[in-house]
Structures are given as C-alpha cells and as structure tokens.
Amino acid sequence: NKADKKEYKRYLKIKSDFESKRDMYAMQVQLLNKMIETIDKMKVAMGKSNFNADDLKSFNPSDSNMVKAKNRLSMTFQMLSMYMPNVNADSLLSQLKEGTKQLNDFLAYDFNPDFNPRYIVGDNYDDVTQRYYGNNDVTGPTDLHGTHVSGIIAGDRTNKPGAQEGIADDVVVMSVRTVPDGDERDKDVANAIRYAVDNGAKVVNMSFGKGYSWNKKTVDDAVKYAQAHDVLLVHAAGNDHKDNDTTDNFPNRRFEGTHKEANNWLEVGASDMRGYPGSFSNYGKKTVDLFAPGVKVYSTLPDTNYGYLSGTSMACPSAAGVACILREYFPTLSAKDIRKILMKSVTKVNFKVPMPGNSGDLVKYSDISISGGILNATKAVELAMKKTGKGK
Fold this sequence. Notes:
Blueprint: H1 2-46, H2 53-58, H3 64-80, H4 89-110, H5 118-121, H6 144-154, H7 186-198, E1 203-206, H8 216-228, E2 232-236, E3 265-271, E4 290-293, E5 297-301, E6 305-309, H9 312-329, H10 335-344, E7 347-348, E8 353-354, E9 362-363, H11 365-368, E10 373-374, H12 377-388
Parallel strand pairs: 1-2, 2-3, 3-4
Antiparallel strand pairs: 5-6, 7-10, 8-9
Helix pairs in contact: 1-3, 1-4, 6-9, 7-8, 9-10, 10-12
C-alpha cells in the first residue's frame, strides 16, 4: 500500500547511504594502512628509527617507488605542520594508527548490520515508553571519547603536575553513556536526557548525532522536559561537512510536525586555531548557532593520559564548559538567557574562511552559522555581568 511504499523507499535510501559510507570507511582503512606501511619502509630505507621533514628533505632515494613515497610523505608533513609543529614519523604513525582503529571500530560496530548491542542494556526496544534499563558501566569497550570530552569541560584546574585544565572551575560531571558502540537509538537519547535532568544536571553536553531518526517524537518530548526544567542542551553539529539547513541531523531542536523549536538548545560547529571552520564540521546558516574550538584539542584520555582529538564532539564541550561557568557564577540566568549570551558574545570573524569540505569556496561565518562567530568565554562573562548587574 501507499504507506508501505513510502517506508520502503525510505529504507532503500538509508540502506544505500549506509553501504556507501561503509565502503568509504573500508577504503580509508586501506589508505591509512598503506601510509603506515610506507613510513615503515622509509625508516628502513633511511636507516633511521624516526625521522622528520628535514631528514626526509635531505634523503635522496634512487628507487622510483621510494621517490614517490618521499614526495607523498613530504606533502603530509607540510599539511600537518600547522597543527603539529614538531611532527615526525613516529607522531604521524601514532595519528594514523589511532585513525585506523577508529575506522575499524566504525566498521565493526556502527556499520555492521549484524552487530546487536541491545542485549547489554536488556530493554524491549519496541517499547518507547520503557524508562528503566541498562547498567552502571560507563566505561564500555572504550571510554576514550567520553574522557576527552569530560576533560575539556572539567579538567583539573589546581595546577597539579601533568594536569590538563578544563574550562569550568567548579563543575561536577555526571557520566551518562547514551550511545554504545553501534547504532545511536532515539529511545536511549531520550532517556539519557531525562535521567540527567532528574538527577540535577543544569547543562547537558551531547557529543553525538546521526543522519536518521526512527522515533523523533520520543526525543522531542525529552527535550521539552529539559526545557520545562530550565536545562541547557548543547549539541555537536556533526562531522560530515554538510549543511544542516538542508540535510537531516539528529537530534535537533526542531519539534516534529510543527514550526516550533526548543529555546534551551545550542548547536555547535568546530573551528580551528586559525579561526577557520574545521574542514569536517557541519554548518548551517539557520541551524548551527556558533562555532567553538574543535580541531586538535588537547584533553584527558583514559589511564591518566592526554592527547589530541578533533571533531564537533570537542567543540560541543568547549561551549558547554563556558555555559557551566555562566550557570555557576550567574545562577539567576535561565538556560534561554545563557544561549542568547553565548550567541551575542561570539568573536565575529571579519575575513572569509574556507567552506567546510573540499569545495575551495570562501564564505563568511554568517553564511554558515546563526551568530556568525566563534565562542568567546571572556565576552560571555562580561555580557552576563552586564545583564545581571553582578561583578565589575
């Protein structure tokens, strides 16, 4: 019938997108493994256990294949030098191996149709009203992503040796593992928001997202619940260098079937240290509120380690951390007030920047975000002081 045909057509589109992205990740794994193999061969050819750009420049191989390998690596070093000033073969290998692991995890879980994680949480997924299920394991197969995100917000600020300072100086982190390895489920997202609200959260960082929603109303109801309890929701815009104005990205602030939007929602894209948007970052003149640091962000990693990660997942806690400062020092401000302050206090970028992706187009920040700028903690505090009459 007509309804089934419409649903089947949607299924075919999702299936096509799913398989296309899975094939892309598989190809990227092959390319990264090839690069790793090239570096290992170059070490042998140069007789060095490690080498940098200068070493590579002075190396003159006679083999044509090694000449090509040298040229490829030289270009890679040059591109990375703006983010990693002292890049060498070992640091590049570390980045490549981490990228390969992440992609292989995507292939094993997120893009593996045979993987089913529901047995872990023990719920009946068909029952969207079910609230109480799961377990207290916030570590899961890996806690790298959540640990890095948490450190951006709440890293130790007491100047202990080796400590990495977070943005907020007096914040308590509530760890809610919303998304297991595998598919991000609307039911889990909705229940995670409600759990955080019920247990006292004032700012909820949501460093996750997806392109399709199975039961958006369930999430919408949870967003409304957070709005009614004056809780700010800060969400990562996504890492597909897509326009969220024209491409679905979930969850989002738009309530299904209406023109209404949540007023307690902040959507965040990623910027780099030059003030450019991250090449991977999603954007949207009508849907992304502001940009925040999200490229090569240094933060905490599991087992008392530290390291760099990139993504709107890192930009999101940058904004959430500033929101926490405002909620701490200016408790009379509502979630709606804080969103407005963060939007109005951005650093306006007065030059054109590369459009995310590889189009080569130059755009203004006002073309890719509502506020037209980048998060600015100092200006946000100043604006909050002015609004509340508190402090000097």
